[in-house]
Amino acid sequence: MKTKYQVIADEIRSKILSNEFVVGKVIPPELQLQKDYGVSRHTVREAIALLVNEGFLRKEKGSGTYVDDSYQRRGDGVSSSKTIGVITTYLSDYIFPSIIRGIEQKLRENGYSLLLASTNNDVDQERACLEQMLSQGVSGLIVEPTKSNQYNPNLAYYLSFKERGIPVVMINAYYEELSVPFICVNDTKAGYLATKHLFEQGHQHLALITKIDDLQGKYRMKGFIKAHEEMRTNFDPKNVYTYTTETKAQVFETLREKLAREQEVTGIVCYNDEVAQGLIQALAAMGKRVPEDYSVIGNDDSFLSTAGSVKLTTLSHPKEELGEAAAEWIMLAVQQEMTGNKIFEPELIIRDSVKRITN
Q1: How many CB atoms lie within 10 A of CB 118?
Q2: Which residue, among 141, 199, 185, has the nearest Cα to 165 in the 3D structure?
Q3: DSSP secondary-structure letter at 353?
């Protein structure tokens, strides 16, 4: 458990890294900090001493305590000139090992080291990761946004990177509130191709399961709607099932209850392969089979697409190639050679999870 002075030091450090306390400016006096945190003067002085030692603050006799940036030149032994920070939502799950492998291989080929962290799609953990990267003095940052379709309280940290001249590129998604370059898959097209394929196979009543706290889910839903519009077919909003990072388990139960009552839906577009495999298991528990009773399409062409008893029809994701592209982008940016966004176009991969319906 942290002591009071360590907690205060953490809060002041966060304010420095998010630019609430600006380099070269004086911080509130000790008496004010005592009142703000409800602690003794001794505790405040311990917190300040810790931050002075770390290089976040400097004391000037008779003038006050100022925000310093010498921490950026320390780096705890990490070379800031050749270190790239990488923040992803997850490290060992799903498609992330392949993306990270692509990043790491390209960076190491060019003499860069990698500082890796993950957020578990949690904004508090994202803040800690961003503070770590700023403290370590990375020369560039590759980041997968956390809950990119919701307001994020950490946006100020990304502006801090920009003000410090540290280039940032986002992968898989981006924060629409920020003007930050990104490398992504065309998720609208992915949702569109999946939905269109089901229509082409004779399915008329479709459902969608999508993740609504990430931007990918929003755009895949947009593609689902676009395909309906193109086919001049109305979709039932009740057949769109959304979930967040925290509510994924419940969405299968909701869908099972709905499908048990309603027989119209024959095709289901899933946010990704993981959801598709979870759906297949949920349907099996109902005594239903894929594709005999329901046709299911995944997304991302992950290892899960061929790991189950039913080989999934899915959409491609470049994975390692996307990681390599992100590494190439950030290395150029470190050398002041800025390039634009890069969007990969998905392709439909047809396997065994969709049945053709003939009238």
Answers
A1: 21
A2: 141
A3: S
- pTM score, whole prediction: 0.84
Are 50 and 11 within one domain?
A: yes
Strands annotated E in the chain: 57-60, 64-67, 83-88, 113-118, 140-143, 168-171, 182-185, 206-211, 240-243, 267-270, 295-297, 314-315, 342-344, 348-349
End residue of a domain, out of 43, 72, 101: 72
Same structural domain for residues 104 and 148? Answer: yes
**How does pLDDT run across 131-187, given as a tens digit for each residue?**
999 988 899 999 999 999 999 999 999 999 988 889 999 999 999 999 999 999 999
CATH number at residue 115: 3.40.50.2300
**Cβ atoms 250, 221 nearer than 8 A:** no
Q: Using an 8 Å Cβ cutoff, are 347 and 315 in contact?
A: yes
Which range marks the domain in which residue 42 is found?
A: 4-72
pLDDT in tens, 69-95: 887 765 444 444 689 999 999 988 889
Q: Round to whole Å and give the CA distance between 96 and 172.
A: 11
Which residue reads 């810790």 in tokens? 50
